[in-house]
Structure formats: C-alpha cells, structure tokens
Amino acid sequence: MTAPAIHLWRLLKWGRTLARHGALRGIERDPNTPAPVRRLCRIARLGARVPATPAYADALEAIGPPAIKLGQTLATRPDLIGEDAARDLERLQDAVPPLPYAVIEAELRNSFGRPLDQIFAEIDPKPVGAASIAQVHRAITTDGRQVAVKVLRPGVEEEFAKAIDTYEWAAAHLEAFGGELSRLRPRLVIETFKRWTARELDLRREAASASELAESMIAEPDFVVPKIDWQRTTGRVLTLEWIEGIKLSKRDQLLAAGHNPARLAQTLVQAFLRQAIAEGFFHADLHQGNLFALPGDRLAAIDFGIMGRIDRRARVWLAEILYGLITGNYRRVAEIHFEAGYVPPHHNVGEFATALRAVGEPMRGMAVKDMSVGQMLDGLFNITRDFDMQTQPHLLLLQKTMVMVEGVATALDPDINMWETAAPFVREWIRTELGPETAIADRLIEDVRTLARLPELVRNIERHFPSPGGAPPAPPLKPVELVRIGAGWRYATVGLLSGFTGVLLAWLVLG
C-alpha cells in the first residue's frame, strides 16, 4: 500500500506543475473560487516564473497520461474553459510528443514474437498521431492493404496505476469529511474512471468494441467504423483499416473540400443517439481528433478504447427524460427521476418538476451558441444538491460523452439546436419501444420469465433487500487508511486536496 506521504507529494507536485505553467491563474482570479483555494494557488506558484499566457497542454503533458485524458475532454468545451484554452488543449488529442520509432519497433517485435517483415511489408517510422496512451503509425500489410497500427506506450499502465492510486486516496479523504463531498461520492467516481482506463489499456478489448459497434451501426450508413485486422492485433498492438479523411478539428480544410459542417453535425448527433438510446452501446470518446469527414459528408470514428453500455430500462428513462425536456413535459421528467430512484422519495415530485422547469425553460428553442452553458450547469448542480441526488457512476460516462458530442457538434455548426436535432429520433424510438404493442409483448415476456424464476426470487428476497432505483450495485472499494491529524492541519489538508483534485472530480461528475 502506498504511503500517505507519497500521495501528498504527488498532489503537491501536480499542483506545482499546474501553477508553474500558469494553469491555475483562472482559478486564482475567479471571484467564485473559495478563498482557501485561491491562497493555495498563490502558494503553489511562489518562486516560479509563470508565463504570461497559460500553457495548459504543456502542464498536463508534464503531469502525465491521466491528466492528458482530462485535457482531451476539456478541449471540446471552449464555452466552459475559453477559446484560448480550448485551442491550446486541442493538440493533446493526437499531437502529444511521439516516442522514437526504435522504441515502438521494439514493442511491436515483443508483442508479435516474430520478425516484423513477416507481418508488414512497410511501416512508416513517422507517427500519424500520438496521444496519451498510444501512438499510431501507417503501414502496409504483406498482402498489400493500407492499415493503421496503434501501439501502447511502454510503461503507460504503471503511470495510470500510480495516478489512480493517488486519486483514490484523495477521494477517500474528501469523502470522509461528509456533507456535499460525501453526496457526490468521489470514491465511486474514481472507481468508475479506473474501470474505463483498464478497458482502454487492453487493445484486444478495443478491437472487440470496434467490431461490435460496426455491427450495431448498420442502420447508420453515414457513420463508418474501420474494420479490424484480427491477425495483426494483440493486447498491446491494434491493427485496423486505414481511414482517409479530414479531421473535424480542421474546419478550414472541411470547407475547402466541400463538406457541409451542418450535415456532419447532424450525422454525429444522430449516430450518438442511436448508439446510446437504441443500441445501449456507444463510443465514449468522440472528440474532434477521433472523428473524420469522408466523401459524401459521412463520418468515420477511430479510437474505441472507451465505450459505454447502458441497459434497456436506463435507455427508456433516458429517452423519456430527453423527450420530456424537448417538449417541456417537466412533470414526466420529474416522475422518471423518482421512478429510477435518482431522487429520494421523501421529496415532492411537483417541486422537483418546478425546479427542472426553471433550468430547462430558458434554454428551449435556442441555438447552442446562445445558451449560457455555465448558468445551466450551475442550475442543474443546485437541483442535485437541493434534492439530495447522489452521483450515479453508471451514468457518468454517458453524461461525459453527451457533453463532448455537444461540443463537437457546436464547433461544426454553431447554429445547431440540439433539442430539435434529437427530437425526431427520440420520438420515433419512444413510439417503437413504449407503444401499446411493445408494452403488451414486453409484459407477457416479463411475466413468463418472472414465473419461471419465482422460487429463486423468493430466496433472493429473503437474503437481500432489493437495491433502490434500479441502479447497479456499487463495486467494492479497496480500503484506504485515512490520515488522522489535528484540527488546524485538517482544514489545510482538505483545502489542498480540494484544490488539486477538484478539477478532475468536477469533470467526471458534470461531464
């Protein structure tokens, strides 16, 4: 078990790195930042030569791959972090400094266990992209096909393990203080993030995810998933079809090639809705660096390391919530939250519906560019606090991806109305899934299955209380030994932990 002193040292080092690159200047100058956090930011930059222009990407690169993953998501939200910061962070999506080809070549040989000339006729030593976890090289197979070869960076697993270990330690101490921090369940949030990264670090699972997504997206011909070369794929190497297109981040090139950004934005939103609502299996890392425009205004996606999955009951709730917000049926949206167990039953449905109306009504009918996203998030956060809503870790990935898709779609078409774009698909899916014929068929199937399981159900009821709201049971959390210190140092420590881990937790909780 890692010593507490090591965790504190890592947090101090990360905070110092952020301050040295000027990345804490915005937090320090924000009038809404608590005074203790502002003081910690000032202390962190003591003696440092802070650049006139904050170097956010450089700071996150210096901290390591887990921080780079955070920067990739923030790059899609210039409305939250500012245009300058978003532009600076964009290069983290695929322009991280690459490793020398000699290192990559050694990794390939070790992974395949045989000479590379038996597998590839040619490999371009210059990478086409390098990100936090892996880098990609263009290659030609021995049978003449152009492919992309993705190779994990050596030692990346150890880096993530160390960082997440400290995140878990910090989250446990934050949660121990109770109150608002306890309600947000930071330990479960970090546990969910840990599981996402574990899946992303096994490239065979990424290949399987891409194959499954391709099968589920047959109904969306304008959304392309590259084919997997299973014979040239291992746990540390992924080989897939080469995609020749223009990255969505390069708007000038899109326009020069004759692409219609508005149509690309609609295709992205429709594809995501089909994945999340109709299929329950979605690409959860849809930033600009992972999306390419193809001829005919089609979209292609790459990088399937982070995928999300939600069951049918949760998808029905999600569709009804979206449709309720689109149509202004806040009463039904509130009822769903109570049915799902997201809001404790001691609260009033009508009061919750009124609170939702106060947040949602000002946004209806507006283009995304005219919305105050910060104001909307602040209103939603107040609702969760006022109605004792706990964080739902099984929905965090969906929330994060919805925010990311909105950011990319808005960059393509600032005039897009997300509600109007989503409405036809959501309406049709609800009609199909919740219509009378489907309801009768589902009820018959459910009743037959329940009768067949009746003896087992009775035994389970006797052994356990049913879990509330249909949320999956919380995963086991590893024990963390809390540091017991005096009152004065107690408050200094919580301020430190809040300042240097709050950004990560806010990203995970609020998208």
What is the distance, rounded to the nearest whole angstrom, between the alpha carbons of the first and last residues? 31 Å
Overall pLDDT level: 79
Number of DSSP E strands: 11
Measured as a percent range, the helix fraction is: 55-70%
Q: Which assembly state applies to the chains in this document?
A: single chain
**Biggest sheet record:** 5 strands, antiparallel
Globular, elongated, flat, extended or rod-shaped: what is the shape?
globular
Strand content: 5-15%
* Helix run count: 23
Residue ranges: pLDDT <50 for 5 or more in a row? 505-511
Rg measurement, Å: 24 Å
Helix/strand-derived category reads alpha+beta
Helix/strand layout:
Elements: H1 4-20, H2 25-29, H3 35-44, H4 56-63, H5 65-74, H6 78-81, H7 83-90, H8 101-112, E1 120-123, E2 129-130, E3 134-141, E4 146-152, H9 156-176, H10 179-183, H11 186-200, H12 203-216, E5 223-224, E6 237-241, E7 246-247, H13 251-256, H14 261-279, E8 281-283, E9 291-294, E10 298-301, E11 307-309, H15 312-327, H16 330-339, H17 349-360, H18 373-386, H19 393-412, H20 418-434, H21 436-452, H22 454-463, H23 487-510
Parallel strand pairs: 5-10
Antiparallel strand pairs: 1-3, 2-3, 3-4, 4-6, 7-9, 8-11, 9-10
Helix pairs in contact: 1-4, 1-9, 1-23, 3-23, 4-5, 9-11, 9-23, 14-19, 14-20, 15-16, 15-20, 16-17, 17-18, 19-23
Summarize the structure.
The chain is an alpha+beta fold.
Keywords:
alpha+beta, globular, about 500 residues, 23 helices, about 60% helix, about 10% strand, five-stranded antiparallel sheet, four-stranded mixed sheet
